[in-house]
Structures are given as C-alpha cells and as structure tokens.
Amino acid sequence: MNILDKIIADKRREVELKKSLIPVSQLEKSVLFERTSISLAELLRKSDTGIIAEHKRRSPSKSVINQDLNVQDVAKGYEEAGVSGMSVLTDGKYFGGSLEDLLYARASVEIPLLRKEFIIDEYQLLEAKAYGADVILLIAAVLDRKQIKTLSEFAKNLGLDVLLEVHNEEELEKSIMSSLDMLGVNNRNLKTFEVSTDTSKELSEKIPSDFVKVSESGISSVEVIKDLKNYGFEGFLIGENFMKTEDPGASAKEFIKKLKA
Ligand SMILES: O=P(O)(O)OC[C@@H](O)[C@@H](O)c1c[nH]c2ccccc12
C-alpha cells in the first residue's frame, strides 16, 4: 500500500468515529456557520504576488519540520507579511495538525483560510465551515468524478471556495467542472514524494482559463514563481520553505518583498 492509500484508509475510520460522536447538528451550532466566507480565488485574481502560506508541523516526506511554534503567531505573521491566504493542515496522524489549529488561526486573522485535509466525506466540509475555513481542498488522486462533483457542490452550498488538486493530465481531465474555483497542480507526487515544478508548467496549458491556477509544493525561490507566472499561475502554495524557519511570518515577508522587487 502506498502512503496515500494508508492515509485515506485511516481517514475513513477517523471520519466514521467522529460522525458517531459529534452529530452534524452540533457542528451547525458553531457561530462560525454564520460567518461569511472570503473568496481566495477572487483575492488571487487581484493579487500581484498570490502567496498561500501553509502551517505544517511535519509531513510523511520530511518528518519534523517545526514543532515549536504557535499557530496563532504563524497566522498573524503570515497576515502581516501580506499573503493572500493561509493553508492549515488539519490531519493529525501524518501532519501533526488539528481542527483546533484551524480554529485558532481563524480567531487570529481575517485572511482566507484553507482547510488542508484529505476530504472524502461531506461531514468534513461541515467541520471545515464550523472551524472557520473559507476554502477546502479536494485531491483528484483519491476521488472519482462523481465524488468530486458531490463534494464540490456541497462546499459551494456552504459558501466555501474549492481548490481541486491534480498531479497529472488524467486527473485533470476527469475533474474539470464548474463547481471548482481553483485548479492546483501539486508539484509533489503524493505517492512517491518526488518534487518538480515542471509538473505545473506541463499541465498549465491544459487548465481552462476560467479557473485560477495554483502551483503547489516545492517552491523555495522567487525565481520559480516569476517563471511560473509566465505559464498563467496566480497562486503559489508554500509550506516548508517558511515553516522550517524560526519565524515563518518574517520569512514570508522577506519573500514577498523580493517578489515585488
Ligand atoms: O511544503 P511545500 O513543499 O511548500 O508544500 C506545501 C503544500 O503544497 C503541501 O503541503 C501539500 C500539497 N497538497 C497536499 C495535500 C495534502 C497534504 C499536503 C499537501
């Protein structure tokens, strides 16, 4: 079994357990259900930098990245740096995140927040809304077209933006539909962990222009972003490059300053 299959198998069990303990009616009582979401896609279209900065303590590919920080401080730092949005890992077992991380980030900043999670069930979308997300991620590698349609439409009905992540042409072709806002190309193969930003370049022309194009993973220099912009990318998801430093907010600020220069 590859790592992605393992993560999904664990996720199915986790979601079933949570469903039996915390009913949907309880999630819907969250005050955050009444909050109007902010569209990340719209902000990215208007931004000249388009950075989505991630909070990620560890990952299956790198093990420990940074366990010493408070998500609130990271969120405030990113917001002050001028990022367009923040991605918060909520998977516990493989990434060391939690829904509480999302909640504390929400309490600390106004910028759009992406729930970074392996979504397989509508229940997780209700959780995303209840804990303050504005955007959800769907991963084409683990969903069929019908699931992508049902989940993305459910998210849209909650007022959430949808970022659909692909890694190859086949995943892209099966996924194109109007209930998606952003198309993300993951430069990291989630099955082998190989990283190459050429993946973004290769797929860029196959993404219809009505979707905001986002390049994800393995981005560590402004030169790469300047290059990817020529291929129509307007969003850039960066985790490790910021999180491995002592002050991710300060690193993001420095990065954005360089990008604007
Ligand atoms: O830390 P990086 O290489 O900058 O990558 C960030 C982000 O793209 C990556 O964490 C990611 C992209 N898609 C995912 C799906 C699940 C978990 C994590 C991810």
Description:
With about 260 residues, this protein is an alpha/beta fold. The chain has a single domain (about 5-260), classed as Aldolase class I (TIM Barrel). About 45% of the residues lie in helices and about 15% in strands. The protein is built from 12 helices and 10 strands. The protein has helices at about 5-20, 25, 40-45, 70-80, 100-110, 120-130, 145-155, 170-175, 200-205, 220-230, 240-245, 250-260, and strands at about 50-55, 60, 65, 85-90, 115, 135-140, 160-165, 180-185, 210-215, 235-240. The protein has an 8-stranded parallel barrel with strand order 1-4-5-6-7-8-9-10, surrounded by 7 helices. Strands 2-3 form a two-stranded antiparallel ribbon. Helix 4 (about 70-80) packs parallel to helix 12 (about 250-260). Bound molecules: indole-3-glycerol phosphate. Indole-3-glycerol phosphate binds near residues 56, 139, 237, 238 and 240. It catalyses: 1-(2-carboxyphenylamino)-1-deoxy-D-ribulose 5-phosphate + H(+) = (1S,2R)-1-C-(indol-3-yl)glycerol 3-phosphate + CO2 + H2O. This is Indole-3-glycerol phosphate synthase. It is an enzyme of class 4 (lyase). InterPro entries: Aldolase_TIM, Indole-3-glycerol_P_synth, Indole-3-glycerol_P_synth_dom, RibuloseP-bd_barrel.
